[in-house]
Specification:
This protein is mostly helical. It has six helices and two strands, in the order βαααααβα. A two-stranded antiparallel ribbon has the order 1-2. The longest helix is centred in the last third of the chain and has 11 residues. It starts with a strand and ends with a helix.
């Protein structure tokens, strides 16, 4: 299971990107923003935009954690 290492919404805000600016510049879709707020994974395109905005690598933002339920199956 992929998980976030950072609070992406806070990181975007600290980089000067509030929801209005993101929507205006069409960097990240409204659906992706909702997923971020819920802690759900976004798609590759959105992750690409987040990496560009924050000047980070994907590994700085997300990590893989084995899902304990999947291991028990």
């Amino acid at each position: 299971m992929l998980k976030y290492k950072i609070n992406v919404i806070d990181a975007l805000r600290n980089a000067g990107y509030n929801s209005t600016r993101i929507f205006k510049e069409r960097n990240i879709s409204q659906g992706a923003m909702q997923k971020l707020r819920k802690g759900e994974m976004v798609g590759m395109r959105s992750l690409d935009h987040i990496c560009k905005i924050l000047n980070m690598q994907p590994g700085d933002i997300i990590y893989y954690s084995p899902d304990s339920e999947a291991e028990n199956d």
